[in-house]
Design goal:
Helix 2 runs antiparallel to helix 3 and helix 4 packs parallel to helix 7. The protein has a four-stranded mixed beta sheet. Strands 2-3-7-6 form a four-stranded antiparallel beta sheet, with no helix packed on it. The chain has nine helices and eight strands. It has about 350 residues and is an alpha+beta fold. Strand 6 and strand 7 form a beta hairpin. The chain folds into three domains: about 60 residues, no CATH class; about 110 residues, Butyryl-CoA Dehydrogenase, subunit A, domain 2 (Beta Barrel), CATH 2.40.110.10; about 130 residues, Butyryl-CoA Dehydrogenase, subunit A, domain 3.
Length: about 350
């Protein structure tokens, strides 16, 4: 897949992509799902940084980073949230001091996914205090740079995908500035659209075995072949109808985006509904498998995979912007409600 460029089918071939049109890539995705193929490569580089570099990066930055992302040779993490800058991200305080041909970065990020395993980071830093939004810059640097340290955050699921990340006098070369100085917020907003679409897509699990089939296998069917539990059957039917509607909305949004007609705030709509839908999916999954799904350790449960994944989904409506923030964006920018 990487040799064909199909890990990133719509990226230009010069940057390791497949050079396919959006319509061709859609057909490729449909055929892969029909064959029950897994995604060839998933990464923050593909989902978030890549699109931002294609739009804002210099030619040298594209040639240096995009082919490695397409081939899965580099792992990126995202340096956005800070202890005092979460939903109000533009309040970030991590400082980059201009030293001529480079910056010196000091500060802290939090909830940095897989920072302890990442090779490089794309990071928002403050390069001016004169303006809240127009004082932010978007930079790239090596996580092995002197002065970078990470500390994993243990979650309720027992796993640690998130980290605290600390920068102490970290040198960042000026050539790693993406976009204009003090205009990193433009890059950040563009990247957030892709992040929210990515998180929202967890609401569509069309390649997985439908919940109704799983429930019949686990709980049995009545004389007519339907799930024996009528209440659970109704809940699953409602969920699968909502899931199908969401899948069609995702496709329609993609078609609008290809035609240049998609509203920029639609990413917030998809992120909200997709993350809430995934939480519903796993609540139903726990209802289907009952006490067995609560098993925390052991070979039979794959070390408590269901229970740990169920707990992990609680973060879906927080990461990438809380559901409340997404609803505010939808109310203000799509519905244009008064006072929103």
């Amino acid at each position: 897949m990487a040799a064909k460029g199909w890990t990133v089918p719509t990226w230009p071939t010069a940057y390791g992509g497949g050079g396919l049109s959006s319509l061709q890539a859609k057909v490729l995705g449909q055929e892969m799902r029909a064959l029950n193929c897994r995604s060839p490569l998933n990464s923050f580089g593909i989902w978030m940084l890549g699109p931002a570099l294609l739009k804002f990066g210099t030619e040298a930055q594209k040639l240096e980073h995009l082919p490695k992302i397409a081939r899965g040779e580099i792992r990126w993490c995202q340096g956005y949230s800070e202890p005092n800058a979460g939903s109000d991200l533009a309040s970030l305080a991590t400082k980059a001091e201009d030293r001529g041909d480079h910056f010196i970065v000091n500060g802290q990020k939090i909830w940095t996914s897989y920072a302890n395993h990442a090779d490089w980071i794309f990071c928002l830093v403050r390069t001016s205090t004169e303006n809240k939004h127009n004082g932010i810059s978007f930079v790239l640097f090596d996580m092995a740079s002197p002065g970078v340290s990470t500390k994993p955050i243990l979650l309720i699921s027992g796993k640690s995908p998130f980290c605290e990340t600390f920068f102490d006098d970290v040198r960042v070369e000026k050539r790693n500035l993406v976009g204009e100085l003090n205009r990193g917020w433009d890059v950040a907003k563009y990247l957030l659209q892709h992040e929210r679409e990515m998180i929202g897509s967890i609401g569509d699990r069309s390649a997985a075995k439908p919940l109704g089939q799983q429930a019949v296998t686990a709980l049995g069917a009545d004389a007519t072949g339907r799930l024996a539990d009528p209440l659970l059957r109704a809940q699953i039917a409602q969920f699968e109808a909502d899931e199908s509607a969401f899948r069609l909305t995702m496709e329609r949004t993609g078609d609008l985006a290809r035609a240049g007609q998609a509203h920029p705030a639609m990413a917030s709509m998809l992120k909200f509904y997709g993350s809430e839908l995934n939480k519903r999916r796993w609540e139903l999954m726990m209802a289907i498998y009952g006490a067995d799904a609560l098993e925390w350790e052991g070979e039979r449960s794959l070390d408590g995979d269901r229970a740990r994944t169920w707990l992990r989904t609680k973060a879906n409506s927080i990461e990438g912007g809380t559901s409340e923030v997404q609803l505010n964006i939808v109310a203000k920018r799509i519905l244009e409600l008064p006072g929103a």
